[in-house]
Protein: Thioesterase domain-containing protein
Amino acid sequence: MYNPKSAHNQVSSIQFHSSKSQCHAPMLLPKPVTDPIQYFKDIPWCAKILSDKSVVQVAVPDRTPLPSTESAFIRETLNTPNTVKACITFFRYIKPTAPASETGEDKKNPFLELCTFVDLNSGVNGYANTAHGGFYGVVLDEVMGTTANLQAAQGAFTASLKVDFKKPLYTPSVVLVRGKVQKKKGKRVFVNGSVEDKDGNVLASAEGLFIMVDRDIGRWTDKTKSKL
Structure:
């Protein structure tokens, strides 16, 4: 039987730390969020999604920087009130529409959809009031890569990631990032992902190929976390 707690223990999604901005005039930055789950539950469209019966687990990602510097870009550079103010992750179980003989899905480890709410601010901008296009790639790779890792005993590397930009991501705003394995064949894991706004508009979609490895690649989940 599938155990959602075991899946939660493997989650390595989006995490972050703070730094100070330099500017010519004082800048009022958003305050850090102390209770991310309640923070998103207080946003009506987020609360509606979180209350859906398909949601099997909600979690707050660990945002602690690591001594090894692994994931420093996610855990430190993007962990500021002016970049990624807050985030939570949750799993959704979606009944398969294709037979396991075609997708390679194991009933004991189903292809769960991993979702992440991310509250973005101007520190991720490229153009004025608009997130940098490369930011799409970062959050999609993190979420989609996590879903691939949940299918791999030793972890998986990104082999390719194709992102289609559909609409601008305006900031500040909260977006929903999704990732779900579509097929597993041999060492290859095929994953689809998307970034959506509060109205369900798809701002970007992605297709990724991840390669499972047969050796320990030293994922941060296997290491002792730093105590700051």
Remarks:
- The two ends are 38 Å apart (CA to CA).
- Confidence is low (pLDDT under 50) at residues 1-29, 220-228.
- The chain is about 20% helix and 30% strand.
- The chain has one domain: 4-15+31-222.
